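Quick one:
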Amino acid sequence: MTPYWMSRTNLLLGENAISLLQSKKILLVGLGGVGGICAEMLVRAGIGNITIIDNDKVDASNINRQLIALHSTIEYPKTHLWQQRLLDINPDLQIEIHQLFIDKLWTQAFLIPDKFDYVIDCIDTLTPKVFLLQHCYRLKIPIVSSMGAGGKIKPDAVRISDISATYECDLAKYVRKKLRKEKIYSGIKVVFSPESIIEGSLLVTEKAKPKKSIIGTISYMPAIFGCMLASVVIRDLLGISVD
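Output:
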């Protein structure tokens, strides 16, 4: 029986689709502006089992774009805040949280075949991002990845494509370069924007560790990326063409 709070989704997709989504297990890594909204859209759509991973606490600079970032939540761990919020959306949700920065060894041990139906990469640090992508690719675990949402303001430019078809995105360029060293040229779905980064929006600073820079953002762009990632996962799981 579909819960009443999902009645509108039921009207659109039907009870069988909702039952299918409730049975699926999702791994989402990175709970920033993109990953947070993606997690919420997945749970509101009916995903019944989700594992979320992030190492950050809320910073005041997150307030311009992250749903759980409020003056009252500064310095709180993002995973715990998201766990509370997602359970408030669906009290029956099966949720597992990991407050950590993933590395190669942890990813290899944790992410094994048939553990998850779909993986979503919202990591903004290059090395763990690329390893997660190549690990899923080799294990044939479905994965979709977010490229760079920062420095951009045009929502109509955001698109879904294969990593091999990305352009005018610095993060995608670096990801492609590292994947090529592993003999991976295509076969990974991504959300990206070919819009040129707005001049002056990138700041190189030591304060961004483990990253090397901070990039300007606007409220709606990470949310658009997150919604598009969620749409890829939902449609793939339901067998609805993403093209």
